[in-house]
Amino acid sequence: MNTFALFTNTQKPSAMYWAEKAAELLKELNVNCCADDEVVDAFNPTTAEYVERIPIEDFGKFADVVISFGGDGTMLAAAQQLIDRDIPLMGVNVGKLGFLAEFSTTELKEAITALINGDYRVVDRTVLETTIDNKKIYALNEFVIDKYHSTGMITVRASVDDFLIADYRADGLILTTPTGSTAYSLSSGGPIIAPSAAVLCITPISPHTLTLRPLVIPDSLEVTFEVLSLNNGAMLLADGQIRHSISNGEKLVVKRSDNVLKLVKHKDTTYFDLLRAKLLWSADATETNR
Questions:
Q1: Which residues are catalytic?
Q2: What is the pLDDT of the chain when averaged over all its residues?
Q3: 20 to 30 Å CA-CA from 153: which of 106, 114, 122, 217?
Q4: CATH class (in words) of the domain with range 3-120+266-288
Q5: Tens of pLDDT, residues 167-199
Q6: How does DSSP classify residue 183?
Q7: Of residues 279, 73, 268, the one with CA closest to residue 191
Q8: Closest Cα to residue 125, out of 93, 83, 85?
Q9: Which residues are within 8 A (CB) of 203 and not within 5 positions of it... i.e. 6 or more apart?
Q10: Contact 223, 255 (CB under 8 A)
């Protein structure tokens, strides 16, 4: 890889600090580096002079990889910019959990060197898509249909390939990819799904009927949601990044996109290593409390 693009949460001083450190490292390693104007303007003049100014929407034309600095929210924001572009994304975590942004700041130089030397792997992650007002909307983690301007519940009818699943009366409804299964869906009682599984999961948020449980379906199916509430409609959220109001009676068709997101991963670790490290999967409470 010869050109690195830097994507960062400019509202987080720690993220900006590590993005600038990365630019300095890339300069030392004589590797090309680019970022958008807002990021470059925040760097010290010496570093800024080295970094090429490229708009985020053009990263795919000039860079070989994008490095995100922040937490998982920053990764999702970067993903929204890159889903329809064939460029891998690596996340450096400067937040708390960092499940998507799995690289730590302490290994920044090692990670960048590994990228330059080709000592890494890239995995493809499933992406969801829907169309509203003739515009395609994508999600790496999940689409959420949430209540809008209401303290009450909403009713959402869910169908797959025109076959009715159920009318969900709940605070909301989540359609998650395997990547998003460790995010909002997990906190709502959904299962953890291995990224390679060709499935999606419909997870109700605080359902009124206890028998409505998370449902795993093949990702080859098209899912149709229809808001049946009599209140103020609902809101569609894509990865918590994009919001769009949904009217009562409006139908929303969601399917697996032909696009995928490419994520840079450690060469010698697995998804299950990540579960153990980030979620303390199978951790022994007697050991962690010592």
A1: 72
A2: 91
A3: 217
A4: alpha beta
A5: 999 999 999 999 999 999 999 999 999 999 999
A6: T
A7: 279
A8: 83
A9: 173, 174, 175, 176, 185, 188, 189, 190, 214, 215
A10: yes
Where exactly are the structural domains of the chain?
3-120+266-288, 127-258
Instruction: List the beta bridge partners of residue 119.
Output: none
C-alpha atoms less than 13 angstroms from C-alpha of 90 in its C-beta half-sphere = 28
**Residue 218 to residue 167: CA distance in whole angstroms:** 20
Confirm if 196 and 178 have CB atoms less than 8 A apart: yes
User: CATH assignment of 127-258, given 3.40.50.1220, 2.60.200.30, 1.20.190.50, 2.30.29.30?
Assistant: 2.60.200.30
Global confidence as pTM:
0.92
Q: To the nearest whole percent, how much of the chain has pLDDT over 70?
A: 95
pLDDT digits (tens, 9 = 90+) for 97-131: 778 898 999 999 999 999 999 999 999 999 999 99
Specify the pairing of strand 172-176 against strand 199-205.
Answer: antiparallel
CB within 8 Å of 154: residues ≥ 6 apart: 145, 146, 147, 169, 170, 171, 172, 227, 229, 231, 234
Residue 277: which residues within 8 A CB-CB, separation 6 or more? none
Quote the tokens at residue 287. Answer: 């050991």
